[in-house]
Amino acid sequence: MSVRCGLRPGVFEVHVNGQFREVVLRSSDTLLHALRDLGLTGAKPGCENGDCGACTVLLDGVPVHACLTLGVEAVGHSVTTAEGLVDSPIRQAFIDYWAIQCGYCTPGFVVVCHALVTQCKEPTDEQIKEWLQPNLCRCTGYQEIKDAVHAVLRHSTQTTQGGDKE
Amino acid sequence: MIAFDFAYSRPNTPSEAVALYETAAAQGQHALYYAGGTEIITFSRMGQMAADAIIDIKDLPECQVLGIDGEEIVIGAAVTLNQLADSDIFPLFGQTAQAIADRTARNKITVGGNVGSRRLMYREMALPFLLCDSKVKLFGPQGARLLPFTDVFHHALNLKPGELITQFYIPRSFVANTFVHLKKTKQSSVNYPLVTVLALEDGDRIRMAFSGVCAFPFRDERLEELVSNRARPLCERVKQVIEQFPHEVLHDLEGSEDYRKFVLQLTLEEILKQMGWAV
């Protein structure tokens, strides 16, 4: 048995943003609330129904809705939240391109865009649309978010080409 | 927030999983097998589903398999829709998977979970299995058994208490066949289907399976005969299909019965034209 959690809350060790953190979990707690109880409030409770993407985090590098994941499912896996991406190129690009309005959706977008630019080096417009579609921005700042993604991809391509020349 | 507590277990073998189920059942508890969990969490949060024990099958090695074994493609029940689509192992299955939910959700939704959905009637991943003479491997209190998919899936999954799906087997011979997958939704591209039709060419016949039209997914060989009869013009064949549709067509907030039939008619015409079966 790799993981077991009874009817009463238990203490679990979860690997978050490169560190092992102890968290008290009910088996029915979602990962969203488990993270927020740790003070990691980047993942936002929006719809809590998997529809808005505001709670997106990476589980072993893969974007998931934290509201549709149990906290205990993360035991034995690696979680990355927006707080774990403070030094990422995509976060800086969001600032440079003003891909922020009210900011509530921003951490979810930063997380999913980070996964996109690291996993798809040359995505098509259709792939970018598919990756961003799960996240809603009700301020409708989508164009600036796409601009930020393209900026990171452009920079990544230039760096690679520069590296090849050397 | 889910307003009730349950015992959560993540076993490493099918035997362990079934033993956990039997232990819970013996104590009068309601146990659920859990893979992606999106449906269980959603409906539990809304108070429309409850369980005493959740048995997470994601760590069962059998359920994570995605590959080729001789003349068959093997898909583990806990393979996610994105893993299946991104693998490009069988585009018929990949395109069907890619049309379900959104990309982030598809990182959690599993093939077995979608086919075995209890609360959502669409179960679109069942369509390619219905068309491709697939088999399903089950594991339960009496051990493992391999059955034709259609033996355990009739509108929904019908398993014995304590049984779980571990793997699906699809003959590789179908990979080269021409197919068309069309999903029509009311408004946005990501939504439940008004009409989903999956069509697969099989010699002088077209196989067809439907979701969204009725309260369950199904394949109907009588409709396939009608639609494959090239002696009749396209519009007449499609008209016959609509007139002789074997089950009650849904009439709900997503779309009225008449609107669904109208969309179905256009969808069938589009499919037959794309497949070169219009004349």
Automatic annotation (TrEMBL), chain A:
Keywords: 2Fe-2S, Iron, Iron-sulfur, Metal-binding, Oxidoreductase
Superkingdom of the organism of origin: Bacteria
Residues of the 2Fe-2S ferredoxin-type domain: 10-85
Keyword Oxidoreductase in record: yes
UniProt entry tagged with the keyword Protein biosynthesis: no
GO molecular function: 2 iron, 2 sulfur cluster binding; metal ion binding; oxidoreductase activity
Stated name of the protein: (2Fe-2S)-binding protein
Organism the protein comes from: Ferroacidibacillus organovorans
Automatic annotation (TrEMBL), chain B:
Residue ranges of domain FAD-binding PCMH-type in the record: 1-175
One example GO MF annotation: oxidoreductase activity
Domain of life: Bacteria
Record keyword Ribosomal protein present: no
Assigned keywords, A-Z: FAD, Flavoprotein, Oxidoreductase
Transmembrane regions listed in the UniProt entry: none
Flavoprotein is among the record's keywords: yes
Protein name, entry field: FAD-binding PCMH-type domain-containing protein
